[in-house]
């Protein structure tokens, strides 16, 4: 009887450890797959993913029997992360800045996943149940953040979530021609600026002398490197670099992932 109890105690301890090890391996595989897909596209093999994850091919197949299963899991993880980021932004005191910071994040981080996005959106019989759930969560969080930004008066009231998603598609196509660490493309900044209730005035370039250029620089507000919004000047202290605490925090996260 005593030996039986000891044996039962060992089993109860080993099983959670096995489950934890399986979860860790699954996370390693997903992280390796995300990197491999961003670098080599959807043609990457499961063997390559296993090598990058530091696990055996059998481990990959146990978690993801087919390549389709792996691709869908990678995409679901990315969409869920975007949904969580959008939900976190709802607590920001400046919803307008938070909305444009989210837009900038989506646009600058998606080009590396463009092939995967195209595959998921194709009509080839994908089992989209997981992706539909993740997509719905992201759309709800994005819609709530958009509504908060519109109530603040930062975003035009006639903009809908579907409009924002269409803009993402176009801006990602523009941004993918730039390096991953590049800021938003000028054309993307113009497009996002059109969502604002009071967009920045755009004028044709004209020839000016040095004095006129200096006066213009002194009066024009600088642009936030995260969301391209106007940065308000302060009469005291160091000049502000970001338009809001949300963008400053976002920049910090990019520097220290």
Automatic annotation (TrEMBL):
Residues 23-82 form the HTH tetR-type domain. Residues 45-64 bind DNA. This is HTH tetR-type domain-containing protein. Keywords: DNA-binding, Transcription, Transcription regulation. It holds the Pfam family TetR_N. It comes from Nocardia rhizosphaerihabitans. The lineage of its organism: Bacteria, Bacillati, Actinomycetota, Actinomycetes, Mycobacteriales. Residues 200-226 are annotated as: Disordered. Residues 206-220 have a biased composition (Basic and acidic residues).
